[in-house]
């Protein structure tokens, strides 16, 4: 079983090709998932000029990188072959492609010049992010998936990006085979709790049973990654701001504190919602008020900001974990790469909830990539679709995926 996965929801163009034994959806925890290819182009340096992601620029860059990345992924997976004669499309196929790319003539042109020259590769299915994300960016991935599906005669399936962040945290590395990374996928013990923290989302999600997602709380304003990026900008740091804040915070002089502590917004509220806009504004006031913003003071601000975010995320997660008596806590999304958040969650959960397992994504899998989309695709029971729509505000729905546990139960 081989799956090609496409991710274009924000500013990373990610393509992965994964291989596993067994049929789609029937993947067991012992099954090995071999990463035949995992390629990525990040647009971060381009968006850095603007201090954030511009949808039209993201779309343009995805369109530019898409076909070369697919060719690169097929080549890495050793699935790239050139036929004796290039493929000639019939009128019906031409019409199908023209319809798919009717708003993106340059992508159609690019598709035809690169992909008609190769043989149909041994791929069984194509998974693509359908949301949430920036719609112009999502469409590039979706249209490419639809065109490849039509050209290669393989089914396509939509994947929720947030479910990808959850699943990628459940991967355990195994010994590599022929230089290719290999993972197995853990099956959580339910109920489980996921804290999803990315550039666009901050959500506490209860997973009562596999594939069932219940959003317990979310941010009322800025997402936590967005707050990292904006505060970084105030401190004169580059985009994406998360890793920059983290590096700066580590240089904060020990034993010193700011004259005034930053707030810990909503830390004592009885719900599971978050709010980071006020924290961001508090940093802005502080930056304006302090006449001489020395590197030490900047580092102290970065550290207190990171501490504030960590404390709030942790307090809410612990409260939800206790209330719903969860067996596992899963951290996912770009901000889960943060070293401070990872280590604080690790030590506090071990101390306060000793029976609870914490799943953290491999740091290289925290931020967006194609692999996380492929993993969700592999656990699906062949739920493919003819056409896929971009859904910028797609939510984690109840019963999104049949889980491994359910699938195993069914099989007895
Ligand atoms: O999941 P992701 O790659 O994209 C979205 O789906 O939004 O998350 C990107 C976010 C950015 O806001 C970035 O600043 C943040 O993740 N991020 C971090 C770190 N690495 C990435 N935030 C804090 N600490 C980090 N080490
Ligand atoms: Zn993401």
UniProtKB/TrEMBL annotation:
Q: Which UniProt keywords apply?
A: Acyltransferase, Cytoplasm, Iron, Metal-binding, Transferase, tRNA processing
MF terms from GO for this chain are:
iron ion binding; tRNA N(6)-L-threonylcarbamoyladenine synthase activity
Source taxon at top rank: Bacteria
- Which Gene3D superfamilies does this UniProt record tie to the protein? 3.30.420.40
- A Gene Ontology biological process annotation? tRNA threonylcarbamoyladenosine modification
What is this protein's function per UniProt?
Answer: Required for the formation of a threonylcarbamoyl group on adenosine at position 37 (t(6)A37) in tRNAs that read codons beginning with adenine. Is involved in the transfer of the threonylcarbamoyl moiety of threonylcarbamoyl-AMP (TC-AMP) to the N6 group of A37, together with TsaE and TsaB. TsaD likely plays a direct catalytic role in this reaction.
Please report a single Pfam family linked to this protein: TsaD
What is the scientific name of the source organism? Answer: Candidatus Yonathbacteria bacterium RIFCSPLOWO2_01_FULL_47_33b
Enzyme Commission code = 2.3.1.234
Which cofactor is recorded for it? Fe(2+)
- Residues that, per the record, bind Fe cation: 161, 165, 368
Record bears the keyword Transferase: yes
HAMAP family on file: TsaD
The record lists the catalysed reaction(s) as: L-threonylcarbamoyladenylate + adenosine(37) in tRNA = N(6)-L-threonylcarbamoyladenosine(37) in tRNA + AMP + H(+)
Q: Which family does it belong to?
A: Belongs to the KAE1 / TsaD family.
What's the protein called, per UniProt?
tRNA N6-adenosine threonylcarbamoyltransferase
- How is its cofactor bound, per UniProt? Binds 1 Fe(2+) ion per subunit.
Q: Where does this protein reside within or beyond the cell?
A: Cytoplasm
């Amino acid at each position: 079983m081989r799956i090609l996965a496409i991710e274009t929801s924000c500013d990373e163009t990610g393509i992965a090709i994964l291989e596993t034994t067994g049929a789609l959806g029937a993947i067991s925890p012992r099954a090995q998932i071999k990463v035949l290819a995992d390629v990525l182009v990040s647009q971060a340096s381009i968006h850095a000029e603007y201090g954030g992601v511009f949808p039209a620029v993201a779309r343009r860059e995805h369109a530019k990188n898409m076909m070369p990345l697919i060719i690169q992924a097929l080549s890495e997976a050793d699935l790239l072959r050139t036929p004796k004669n290039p493929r000639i499309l019939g009128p019906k196929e031409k019409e199908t492609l023209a319809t798919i790319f009717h708003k993106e003539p340059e992508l159609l042109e690019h598709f035809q010049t690169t992909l008609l020259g190769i043989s149909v590769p041994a791929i069984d299915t194509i998974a693509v992010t359908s949301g949430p994300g920036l719609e112009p960016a999502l469409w590039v991935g979706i249209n490419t998936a639809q065109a490849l599906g039509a050209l290669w005669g393989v089914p396509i399936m939509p994947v929720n990006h947030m479910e990808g962040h959850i699943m990628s945290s459940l991967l355990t590395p195994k010994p590599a085979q022929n230089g290719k990374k290999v993972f197995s996928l853990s099956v959580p013990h339910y109920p489980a709790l996921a804290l999803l923290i990315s550039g666009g989302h901050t959500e506490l999600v209860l997973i009562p049973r596999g594939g069932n997602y219940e959003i317990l709380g979310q941010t009322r304003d800025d997402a936590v990654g967005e707050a990292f990026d904006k505060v970084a900008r105030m401190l004169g740091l580059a985009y994406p701001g998360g890793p920059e804040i983290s590096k700066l915070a580590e240089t904060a002089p020990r034993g010193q504190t700011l004259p005034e502590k930053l707030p810990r917004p909503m830390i004592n509220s009885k719900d599971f919602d978050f709010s980071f806009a006020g924290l961001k504004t508090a940093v802005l006031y502080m930056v304006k008020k302090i006449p001489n913003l020395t590197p030490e003071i900047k580092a102290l601000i970065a550290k207190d900001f990171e501490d504030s975010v960590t404390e709030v995320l942790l307090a809410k997660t612990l409260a939800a974990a206790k209330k719903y008596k969860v067996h596992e806590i899963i951290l996912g999304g770009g901000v889960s790469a943060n070293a401070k958040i990872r280590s604080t969650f690790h030590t506090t959960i071990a101390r306060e909830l000793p029976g609870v397992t914490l799943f953290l994504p491999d740091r290289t899998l925290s931020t967006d990539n194609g692999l996380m989309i492929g993993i969700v695709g592999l656990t699906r029971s062949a739920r493919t679709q003819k056409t896929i729509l971009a859904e910028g505000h797609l939510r984690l729905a109840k019963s999104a995926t049949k889980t491994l546990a359910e699938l195993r139960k069914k099989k007895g």
